[in-house]
Amino acid sequence: QLAPWQALAPDKRAALLQRGAEEISRQLKPLSQLLSMETGKPRRASLREINNVADTVGGRCKDILRALRPQVHQGSTIESLVRFDPIGVCAVITPAYHPVAMTHRMLIPALLAGNTVVLKPSPDAPLIGQRMEEIYQRHLPANVLQIVHGRAEQGRNLVAANVDRFLHLFEDLFDRQHVAFVRLRRAVEGAEIAHGGADVAVV
C-alpha cells in the first residue's frame, strides 16, 4: 500500500493524521483509564501524556511538512535540487513506559513522510497500542499502519523481516546475541535503540 499513500499530497496526509489526533482528544478519558490500568501510571500522568500527544500532532505536522519541502541549492555554475522520498516500510518496537508518546514520536514523522509503518507495542502495554492503531486506521488508507503483538519471538521475527528501516527498538525484548545481530543490519542504521530500564508496571 506504499504507492497510493506516497502519491497522496503531504498536506492531505497531515490532515488525515490530524483527524486521528482529534479523535484521541475526544476519547481522552477512556484512553487515559486504559493507559493507567496497563502501566500503573497515576491517572493524572496518563491524562497528561495522551493530551500532550493529541495537542501537538498538528504542530508537529507543520514542522515536518516544512522539513520535507524540496530544497534548491544554487551554485556558481549549477543548480541542484534535494528531494526527500519515502524510505518504504518502517518498523517501530516500543516500550511500556510512555507508550503513547513514544509511539507518536516515531509514527507521525514516518507516516507523514509517506512511509507505511508496522507497530509492535510492548507486551506489557499492548491494549493502548491497539487502541491507537484502531483510531488511526479509521482515518488512514487500509494497511498504511499495521500492528503486531507478542514478546521476544515476535520482536525477532520483525527484525528478520524485510522491512526497509527500523525507527525505534526496545532492547529488553531481545537477548544480547540477537541485539548484536540487529545492530549489523542496515535497516537499523539511524534507529533509536532503548537499552531498557525500570519497569513502571512493577511497584
Task: Describe the structure concisely.
The chain has helices at 2-7, 10-26, 28-39, 43-68, 99-112, 126-137, 152-160, 176-184, and strands spanning 71-74, 79-82, 89-93, 116-120, 145-147, 165-170, 192-194. It is an alpha/beta fold and 203 residues long.
List keywords for this structure.
single chain; 203 residues; alpha/beta; five-stranded parallel β-sheet; two-stranded antiparallel sheet; 8 helices; 7 strands; disordered C terminus
Q: Count the E strands.
A: 7
Give the N-terminus to C-terminus distance in angstroms: 43 Å
Instruction: Give the strand content.
Output: 5-15%
State the oligomer: single chain
Low-pLDDT ranges: 171-181, 199-203
How would you describe what is shown here?
The chain is α/β, with parallel strands linked by helices and 203 residues long. It is built from 8 helices and 7 strands, in the order H-H-H-H-E-E-E-H-E-H-E-H-E-H-E. The strands form 2 sheets. It has a 5-stranded parallel beta sheet with strand order 5-4-3-6-7, sandwiched between helices. A two-stranded antiparallel ribbon has the order 1-2. Strand 1 (71-74) and strand 2 (79-82) form a beta hairpin. Helix 3 (28-39) crosses helix 4 (43-68) and helix 3 (28-39) packs antiparallel against helix 6. The termini are far apart. 33% of the residues are buried.
Topology:
Elements: H1 2-7, H2 10-26, H3 28-39, H4 43-68, E1 71-74, E2 79-82, E3 89-93, H5 99-112, E4 116-120, H6 126-137, E5 145-147, H7 152-160, E6 165-170, H8 176-184, E7 192-194
Parallel strand pairs: 3-4, 3-6, 4-5, 6-7
Antiparallel strand pairs: 1-2
